[in-house]
Amino acid sequence: MNSLLAPYRAAVPVAFESSWESPANIAFVKYWGKKGHQLPANPSVSMTLKECKTSTKTKFSLSNNLTVELKLDGQKNERFAQKIKSYLEGLQTELPWISNLSVEIETANTFPHGTGIASSASGLSAFVLTFVDYLKHLNPEGDHALFLKRASYLSRLASGSACRSIYGGFVAWGDSAQVETSDLYASPVDVHADLASLQDTVLVVSGKEKNVSSRAGHGLMGDHPFALSRFAQANANFSQCISALKSGDIEALGKILETEALSLHAMMLTSSTPYILLKPNTLAAIDAIWDFRRETKLPLYFTLDAGPNLHLIYPEEFKSKIFTFITHELSALSEQIIDDKVGTGPRKC
Ligand code: 2P0
Hints:
Ribosomal Protein S5, domain 2, 2 domains, globular, alpha+beta, binds ligand 2P0
């Protein structure tokens, strides 16, 4: 029995309703490859976003067997309902009373669909926060720090990257010798004041749904010929990224951001079933960013999620010049531009 769930094993379920909103996050050092059950093959660190988030209202009521209904933006969504149902079934060994719940979820994203922002991190962490709120209602033991740790632990089981969305600012997940972190849940990382309002302008090169899921991508790391080198590189980048975040060294941070983005996609290109998520306009934008940096010496860097869209990372003090470059020179390469920045984390509504 996991000690984070032990206080709830013998809980007696009652009816309850909870609403939370939770943000997306962008990984600076990427989680790509798993070990065991939803444990990361290497540590990762991310920045929590401010504007890109999911709001979720969950109604828990009593039933003879577990049922889940889910509406996304007012429309019934069977696929997501099934995903949450399987997730809750997975928790039943530790929390057997889950089999007596009827769960009704209403959820909505602030960012438009198909914009390539990872909605599993915001969506699943928002649902899990409503569930952990329910646990707290059943047994109000523990303080807020424990509430968040429990939420991060349970979010990881739903989707790895979701465990980092539980905290604002910069967040690490995965065992490492350098900072106090765990494979089981994420923890916030203190950073230099210069990075406290880092910008993320998302260049939506293509909003089309990708045809290879991240879950499948993680699976392909199992027999990947470069897996061990990749995990060693990620460990080294994690350690350097934490140092750069703490010292406020944007140049060192930028180098890691771009290396990590390209390494992630190199893993996809060289897996046993190769696939390519980058688009011609992704590469054209990368070229333009490198030219801009060479010419202006301004600290504009890119990173990528598991998709073709670029996250453009830069300090707020250079926003006016950099945002002008993005809107003038890069908007022709993109379907949409989303202006975001570091955020403060989830919020109960
Ligand atoms: C990350 N990504 O660190 C990496 C970088 C995408 C690229 O974690 O199978 O949706 O649900 O644990 O978290 C996307 O994978 O995978 C991801 P599951 P998840 O953000």
